[in-house]
Amino acid sequence: MKKEEMKNSSNKRERTTTTTTRTSEVAREFYYSSRIFSSRCATSTSSDFCDEIFGYHPNAAWMMMKMMKRNEEEEEDKCSDYLFAAHSAKEKKMTTIHEPKVHTWTSIAKSLFAGGIAGGVSRTAVAPLERLKILQQVHGRTATEYGTVYRGLNTILRKDGLRGFFIGNGANCIRIVPNSAVKFFCYERITDAIFQFRRTLDPECEMNVFNRLAGGAGAGIIAMTSVYPLDMVRGRLTVQAGTVHQYNGMVDATRKIIQHEGVGSLYKGLLPSVIGVIPYVGLNFAVYETLKDMLAAKLELKSSKELSVAQSLTCGGFAGAVGQTVAYPFDVVRRRLQVAGWQGSASKTMEKAKYSGMMDCFGKIARYEGVGAFFHGLSANYIKVMPSIAIAFVTYEEVKRVLQVDLHISSGG
Fold first, then answer.
1. Cα 328–322–182 angle (5° rounding)?
2. What span, in angstroms and rounded, lies between the C-alpha atoms of 154 and 159?
3. Element (H, E) at 111
């Protein structure tokens, strides 16, 4: 009898030791936030438990041991089942992690539609400041009538009336709607493609700021290049002043530009535009998404999708300011190249200006107007770009939520 008890006791110790060893090996992979699961795991089934783990964050099974210590003899097998079920779920997740996302044509169309609406709404909301910015860029620092935001808006009102605040906005919306649609869609696809490629090299990698920068830069280049002639025409329409205009709309402007200056003139300023859009769009997306992730973590939210509209607007405004500051000198050069030598310009200086290219334009502005000319109009642009970018991001996300689109910016999933 004693021998049998000793044998049973020995077997029990061996089983406990083996289970504890196996459990500790798996537990090292599952160190989680107990706050998320403490109220859930006690009543969950094995399947539910795995769903809870991988629906929120990857690793949290070790805490199940602590919850089941009350009756160690009866519960150790159950605990082991939980842990290894979670381990199996993780292995299953890892085998499918590299599969590319498959999107339906409907979800793609909805995503493009949301991006277009976001662009149109955001630009119309800040149209007066957009026109003032372009006038400040074209006239330079010597024109005192556009020297400040208040004085500039008063000048526009005096010369063109209330209509003057929205001159060129129709053309701007025709340009920005496809631009924004392409930009948002390409950002999601490029960012996801880069992320999936990184995971083939490192299955445990996470979405980071460099991933988002690259996705934003690529999306910006594609969007800018695809609609640049519309931007050129919009720039010409915007800098017209007075009651007599050389161009009577986008179609008329396009026809006259091609007739008098050639088809190539529709791409004046493309190079600085492409160079400038790389940091601008890249930083917009990268800063916006990174700030949202940081804020969600600070507020202990499960996802950045739980942030309020006001919080998302704040992140978007800050992202817009950072991106615009870096890219602004290229924007100034782009506008100068677009209107240089054009007799219909509101700026008499620009009617006589001649630039052989981007570098020549940079050099002449710096030599004759000073480095500060590259940032003339930036203060007005801050007032414009911060709400514009913020409205664009939030409108895009809200429209997608209404349309129930399954594509999400930088989800990393």
1. 75
2. 9
3. helix 105-125
Give me the phi and psi of 343, to 5 degrees please. Answer: -70, -15
Q: Can you tell me the distance from the alpha carbon of 212 to that of 307, in angstroms, rounded to the nearest whole number?
A: 19
Model pLDDT, residue 104: 76
pLDDT tens digits, 275-315:
888 888 999 999 999 999 999 999 989 888 889 989 999 99
Residues of the chain with pLDDT under 70: 1-103, 140-143, 241-244, 341-353, 406-413
Task: Give residues with Cβ within 8 angstroms of 326, minimum separation 6.
Answer: 279, 280, 283
Q: What is the pLDDT of residue 197?
A: 93
Please state, in angstroms and rounded to a whole number, the distance separating the CA atoms of residues 78 and 65: 9
Residues 6+ positions from 52 with CB-CB distance below 8 Å: 37, 40, 41, 44
The CA–CA distances, whole Å, from 355 to 327, 339, 362 equal 20, 10, 9
Distance CA 163, CA 144 (A): 22
Q: Are 78 and 103 in contact (CB under 8 A)?
A: no
**pLDDT of amino acid 138:** 75
- How is residue 148 annotated by DSSP? S
Q: How far apart are CA 372 and CA 365, in angstroms?
A: 9
CA distance 58 to 241: 60
Q: Measure the CA–CA gap between 192 and 411, rounded to whole angstroms.
A: 8
CB atoms within 10 A of CB 66: 11
User: From CA 25, how far away is CA 372, in angstroms rounded?
Assistant: 62
- CA atoms within a 13 Å half-sphere pointing along the CA-CB vector of 181: 17
Q: Any residues with CB less than 8 A from the CB of 309 and at least 6 apart, and which?
A: 394, 398
